[in-house]
Write a structure and sequence with these properties.
107 residues; mainly beta; three-stranded antiparallel β-sheet; 0% helix
């Protein structure tokens, strides 16, 4: 999965079902604020301001990040849904200030 404008609008079920996530690379150099990558283990639509994320990753301000999950990967049972927001709270719907490039390696 490769996206050049990851924001609060979720990308639903990008894996089309279960998968293992092996790595996530986020290019956040253009954003002066901390961002939060939210991952949902669901094939269903989410409600952006009320659905609890299964995993939340803090991405430092003005920094790029790579997150790896080892040889077994991060197991996603239902479907991989992702979005990026400026706040950690479930209710956060603030888009990043600048486009964020994200690459998620899964199988």
């Amino acid at each position: 999965f490769y996206e050049t404008d990851l924001d609060t609008g979720p990308f639903n079920n990008v894996s089309s079902g279960s998968c293992n996530v092996y790595s996530i690379t986020v290019l956040n150099g253009a954003n002066a604020n901390i961002q939060y990558l939210k991952i949902y283990d669901t094939s269903e639509e989410i409600t952006t301001n009320s659905t609890e994320a299964d995993y939340v990753f803090r991405i430092s301000a003005s920094k790029d990040a790579t997150i790896t999950f080892g040889t077994g990967g991060l197991s996603i049972a239902n479907g991989l849904t992702v979005r990026m927001v400026q706040g950690e709270a479930v209710s956060s719907v603030d888009d990043p200030q600048a486009n964020i490039v994200a690459e998620i390696t899964y199988s």
